[in-house]
Amino acid sequence: MLALTVKAGDYITIGDDIVIQVLKVGELCRVAIDAPRELAIEREKVHEQNAETPECIRRVRKMPPKSGFKQVKKPV
Fold this sequence. Notes:
Shape: globular
Order of helices and strands: EEEHH
Number of helices: 2
Structural class: alpha+beta
Radius of gyration: 14 Å
Strand content: 15-25%
C-alpha cells in the first residue's frame, strides 16, 4: 500500500488511464476520479450493501497500522 500526503489540487496517477485529483482536504476529503468507463468505481459502503466485501479491502483492513497513520477498523 502506498500512503501519500497530498494538498488540494494535487493529482495522483495510476497507470496510464487513471487520474485522481484531490479537490478538498480537511475533516472530509473530496476527490475526482478520471478512469475508463468500463472500470467499476464504487464507494466501499455502496459496494458492501450490494455484495460481499472485496478481497482487496479485507486485505487492507488486516494490515498492521503504519507509524504515523491511524487505521480505522470496520467490522468485517
